[in-house]
Recover the amino acids of this structure.
């Protein structure tokens, strides 16, 4: 009888999270978009919303070159590709960001500075969001770095 009473009193906090977090548009728009171009020496605007049924944990942004034309299986579509090349001074960006405890929805808005001296060409912009239970969602888009076009 004691066992039955304990089972009957179990709380909903014992509920297991089996749902992946989501990466959603902020005000109908996610930035960056697939095949978008950015000038060296400027910045990449990052805007989206993360959502989870129970609790979010953190997110990560990774940017790396795609000079060898590899894929991650999450790109929104194919972009025009340059010939395969070897990196000389590729841009590598990898940053983790905490989401305040208890949040089920989090609006992320960042401006990521692009160094002026990195290789031009194709890059992957990857977003990973992890919920408090460890489930992860990934979104990857292809972007292109172009020469800074200074207007006189």
């Amino acid at each position: 009888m004691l066992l039955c009473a304990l089972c009957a009193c179990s709380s909903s906090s014992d509920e297991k999270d089996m749902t992946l977090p989501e990466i959603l548009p902020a005000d109908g728009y996610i930035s960056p978009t697939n095949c978008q171009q950015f000038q060296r020496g400027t910045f990449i605007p990052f805007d989206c919303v993360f959502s989870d049924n129970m609790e979010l944990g953190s997110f990560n942004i990774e940017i790396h070159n795609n000079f060898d034309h590899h894929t991650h299986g999450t790109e929104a579509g194919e972009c025009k590709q340059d010939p395969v090349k070897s990196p000389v001074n590729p841009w590598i960006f990898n940053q983790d960001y905490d989401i305040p405890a208890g949040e089920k929805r989090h609006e992320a808005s960042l401006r990521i500075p692009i160094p002026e001296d990195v290789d031009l060409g194709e890059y992957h912009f990857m977003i990973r969001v992890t919920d408090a239970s460890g489930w992860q969602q990934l979104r990857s888009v292809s972007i292109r770095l172009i020469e800074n076009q200074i207007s006189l």
